[in-house]
Amino acid sequence: MKWFIDLFTSTLGRKALMALTGLFLVLFLAVHLAGNLQLLKDDGGRAFNIYAEFMSTNPLIQTVSKGNFAFILLHIAMSVYLTIKNRQARGPEGYAITSGKSSAWTSRNMGILGTLVLVFLVIHLKDFYGQMHFGQMEIVEYEGESYRNIYATVSYWFDKEWYVAVYVFCMAAVGFHLWHGFTSAFQTLGWSHPKYNPVINFVGKAFAVVVPALFALIPIWMYLN
Amino acid sequence: MKITLKIWRQKGTNDKGSFKTYKMDHASPDMSFLEMLDVLNNDLVRKGEEPVAFDHDCREGICGMCSLYINGRPHGPLQTTTCQLHMRSFSDGETITIEPWRAKAFPIIKDLVVDRTAFDRIQQAGGYVSVNTGGVPDANEIPVPKKIADEAMDAAQCIGCGACVAACKNASAMLFVSAKVSQFALLPQGQPERMERAEKMVARMDAEGFGACTNTRACEAECPKGIKITNIARMNREYFAAMLTNYEVEAGAGGD
Questions:
Q1: In a domain, A98, yes or no
Q2: Is residue B168 part of a domain?
Q3: Do B149 and B205 fall within a single domain?
Q4: What confidence tier does B173 reach under pLDDT thresholds 50, 70, 90?
Q5: How much is the pLDDT for B255?
Q6: B192 and B99 within one domain
Q7: Which runs of consecutive H residues, i.e. helices, occur in B117-193?
Q8: Mean pLDDT, chain A, as a whole number?
Q9: Taking CB atoms and an 8 Å cutoff, what residues of chain A touch B106?
Q10: CB contact (8 A) between residue B214 and residue A107
Q11: Element at B22 (helix H, strand E)
Q12: Residue B8 falls within a domain, yes or no?
């Protein structure tokens, strides 16, 4: 077991954990978006409510969901630990002048972007996940089956201008976080190859733009309608 | 040309340092950066002041000794060593700020001179190959594809100046270590110690207190020898493979 502990307490091992959990969260985002897009259907929330009921009761989905929470916590724990270690590595005295010319802004500010994403996550979990799992819900019936009306909760929040603004701003933070994070995860895992790098770069950048943009489109669309 | 120099002065490792400003009225644009500092030091000695301590040796861009953090960038505004930087890269009347490399693993010895023996200890941990003594081997006896030889030579260009550590916001040494791991991992001569090399050099790098890599690529942009971060990906592969598959064999057990 010593090798296992050595591996995951080394900087490279910890970075690999960041990368692996990060990539899992990328998958989660894609699935989450697929579900959310049903909000755009003009059916009074029927498709979304049926989907949400399935997601919150299916045992397999619920197990994966617990794993997802664990990965988020692990991703945060590793980033906090590594950030502290990285600060210490600079030493007691910092530079008087630093130039931003040699690296991209997103790559230097993953901590700030990640914190914004975390703040969003807390608000988001309280208002939607918390409401669905622990709150008082209105019940709707479709073909004799009863469902919790999470669509009503979503429309309630997405009717408020400030909420939509915060949501859209946070999606921009997610986008910038992904802009660096997606490709960075592959580099950390050692997946750098002249044949595959262009594909990873294209998919990573496209994902970072398209996914948060579609997420942000939903509250804007619902607010306007 | 007239320039103003803001230079970090520090007596010893444990002393408190601060910036001191020097005016220079007759700097030539043809001087190298280190020659300009030589002129400054001559003036200081003549005035009875302590000259500025800075590292330098070959002044040909191949030894890796020079190490100044100039205007917020290691080795200054060009992607070259400080000794190959010339005053023509600066403008007349400019204020130039000169700092030492800042890293916990590179303690300051004096002024702009830092102790980079952490790099030597990482090299000693595994940055070598074992070579048999005896008869001279035939040239080209071991086949190495041209492109692999080129990649290995590109990695081997690293002169260990530490600009990667200086440029990195995390003071990470990964570009250096990955170049040293890569130059041997690519070649047949490096295979016998391949796994131990990755394990030991990474462990030593961590023990020296260098930071982690966040793939900002600042090291690659500042490296005077153009070492690429593809080497870091290779080091990561080498390390993970070694940690996941390397095992000890009990000698004399007779096999399975």
A1: no
A2: yes
A3: yes
A4: very high
A5: 58
A6: no
A7: 117-126, 146-156, 163-167, 174-185
A8: 95
A9: 91
A10: yes
A11: strand B18-24
A12: yes
User: Tell me: the pLDDT tens digits for A48-79?
Assistant: 999 999 999 999 999 999 999 999 999 999 99
In this structure, is residue A101 part of a structural domain?
no
B73-74, strands of its sheet edge to edge: B18-24, B3-9, B95-99, B69-70, B73-74
Is residue A162 scored above 90 in pLDDT?
A: yes
Question: Taking the mean position of all CA atoms in its chain, how far away is CA B15?
Answer: 25
Of A90, A104, A190, the CB nearest to B171: A90
Same-domain pairing of B90 and B159:
no
A130: number of Cβ within 10 Å: 12
- Tokens, residue B180: 């040293």
Ordered alpha helix ranges (H), A37-147: 46-57, 59-90, 105-108, 110-124, 130-134
Q: Is the pLDDT of residue B120 over 80?
A: yes
- The single-letter code of the amino acid at B96 is I
Categorize the per-residue pLDDT at B254 as very low, low, confident or very high, splitting at 50, 70 and 90. low
Q: What pTM value is reported for the model? A: 0.93
Residue where the block lists tokens 């130059």:
B183
Domain annotation covers residue A204: yes
The answer to whether residues B7 and B112 touch, using CB atoms and an 8 Å cutoff, is yes
Range of the domain at B55: 3-109
B20 close contact with A: CB closer than 8 A: no
Is the Cβ–Cβ distance between A190 and B237 less than 8 Å?
A: yes
Residues B83, B33 within the same domain? yes
What ipTM describes this predicted complex? 0.92
Asked whether residue B101 falls in the same domain as residue B146, the answer is no
B87 and B185 fall within a common domain: no
Residue B74 and residue B172 in one domain: no
Looking at the structure of chain B, the number of domains it has is: 2
What is the pLDDT, as a whole number, of residue B137?
83
Are B102 and A11 inside 8 Å of each other by CB? no
Supply the pLDDT for residue A188.
97
Structure tokens at A46: 């029927």
Provide the residue range defining the domain that includes A46.
Answer: 13-79+106-224
Confidence at residue B256, expressed as pLDDT on a 0 to 100 scale: 58
Chain B interface includes A106 (CB < 8 A): no
Query: Among B6, B102, B105, whose Cβ lies nearest the Cβ of A95?
Result: B102
Q: Is A177 on the interface with B (CB under 8 A)?
A: no
Q: Write out chain B residues lying below 8 Å of A10, CB-based.
A: 202-203, 206, 239, 243
Q: Which residue of chain A is at minimal alpha-carbon distance from B245? A: A3
